[in-house]
Amino acid sequence: MMTAPAATQGGIDALRGIEAGAWELTLPGTRTAPIRMCVGEVSQLAQVAHRGRQCTRVTVDEQGKDVLIHYTCSGAGFGRVKMSVVTPRSLRIETQGVAGQLPFHTTYHARRVGAC
Fold this sequence. Notes:
Elements: E1 21-26, E2 35-39, E3 56-63, E4 66-73, E5 77-87, E6 90-99, E7 102-114
Antiparallel strand pairs: 1-2, 1-7, 3-4, 4-5, 5-6, 6-7
């Protein structure tokens, strides 16, 4: 089922009820230090590889608790992300794209840890 593009979580049904704030992203099965992100919109978690950059996000598909987002960061690369809601405070983020002229493909577990 395709939906109209949405720029914010307000237009993404799968992310309704998920609070913005401080999130911690970990790489399951590794001892890598978590990434901490403070986001004003949960959809900003789609840009892990391009955090802190101004990017344009478009919702490509949405089914139940899953949303597929494509984003482009002018001159800095792009990404395609599948965000799956596990609980209202937990997400699975599968991301791939190009950052710093290099490809990436990573899966994160994200959990809300509080306010910013």
